[in-house]
Design goal:
It is a single chain. With 171 residues, this protein is α+β, with helices and mostly antiparallel strands. The protein has a single domain, classed as NADH Oxidase. The protein has six helices and four strands, in the order H-H-E-H-E-H-E-H-E-H. It has a four-stranded antiparallel beta sheet with strand order 1-2-4-3, with helices on both faces. Helix 2 packs antiparallel against helix 4. The two termini are 33 Å apart.
C-alpha cells in the first residue's frame, strides 16, 4: 500500500474485538517504533505494553478513553536522555521523540490491520505513579489498540479537514 493511501485509510478506533493482538504482529508494531528517528539519535522514548488483566483494569480506571482495547501502549520519554537545544534554553525533544515513535507504531498497526487511537485524556503524573515508572520517565500518550469490532467506521470528523492553505504557508 502506498503511504498516502495508508495515512488516509487509518482512523481512530474506539471499539475493539475481544481478541488479543498476536505476538508476531505486536512485535512488528513495536519494531516500527524502535526504528523511528529521534533527535540526535538519543532514543529517549519508552514504550510500555499493557496487556495484563490488572494493567488493563488500572488504565481503564485512569482514562475513560482506554475503551475496551485488549492492549494499551503507554508511550513516554526518559527526561535525562532527550536532546536539549543548545540554541534556546527550555527547548527539548522528549515529547517530539515519543510522538514520532507513537506515529510509526500507529501507522504500522494500521498497515497490519490493527486499529488504534491516540489518547491524551489521562492523568500523566498519576499514571506514571500507578505503573511505578521512574520519576524521570514522562508519559506522553496512551495508545489503545486491537482489532476493530465489525461495523466500526471512522468518526465523521475523520475527513473534516480545514483548507490546506490554513496549515501550509510558503515563506
Amino acid at each position: 500500500m502506498e503511504f498516502l493511501e495508508l495515512a488516509k485509510k487509518r482512523f481512530s478506533v474506539r471499539d475493539y474485538e475481544d481478541k488479543q493482538i498476536e505476538k508476531e504482529v505486536l512485535d512488528k508494531i513495536i519494531e516500527a517504533g524502535y526504528i523511528a528517528p529521534t533527535a540526535k539519535n538519543n532514543q529517549c522514548a519508552r514504550v510500555y505494553v499493557i496487556q495484563s488483566e490488572d494493567g488493563i483494569a488500572k488504565i481503564r480506571s485512569l482514562s475513560r478513553c482506554a475503551y475496551n482495547a485488549p492492549t494499551v501502549l503507554l508511550i513516554a520519554y526518559e527526561e535525562s536522555e532527550q536532546y536539549f537545544n543548545s540554541k534556546e534554553e527550555g527547548v527539548s525533544s522528549g515529547q517530539q521523540d515519543a510522538s514520532i515513535v507513537a506515529c510509526h507504531m500507529m501507522l504500522e498497526a494500521a498497515d497490519l490491520g490493527v486499529g488504534s487511537v491516540w489518547v491524551d485524556v489521562f492523568p500523566n503524573t498519576l499514571t506514571a505513579r500507578e505503573f511505578n515508572l521512574p520519576e524521570s520517565v514522562k508519559p506522553v500518550c496512551l495508545m489503545p489498540m486491537g482489532y476493530a469490532k465489525e461495523g466500526v467506521v471512522p468518526s465523521p470528523m475523520h475527513t473534516d479537514l480545514r483548507p490546506i492553505n490554513e496549515m501550509v504557508k510558503y515563506l
